């Protein structure tokens, strides 16, 4: 699984989401572990706790979280939070 596919899954699973997914470390060719980092912005996060927001991302990724993704660092924002970050 590549970063574009992770972005596609997140954006398909969360209303009006914009996801930016990167590889935070060099891939290990000897292992199939896939480590990703995601920044996800969506109005669907409004009024949700951080845990609920992260659960929404995990739900959007579905089975990929247990089959293709070893680790996922994530930051989630509402559009207003994203615009106001420093």
UniProtKB/TrEMBL annotation:
The record's listing under SUPFAM superfamilies reads: BolA-like
Q: InterPro entries this protein is in? A: BolA, BolA-like_sf, BolA/IbaG_stress_morph_reg
Q: Which Gene3D superfamilies match?
A: BolA-like
Pfam families (UniProt xref)? BolA
Q: Which domain of life is it from?
A: Archaea
Homology family = Belongs to the BolA/IbaG family.
Identification of the protein by name? Transcriptional regulator, BolA protein family
Annotated organism of origin: Halopelagius inordinatus
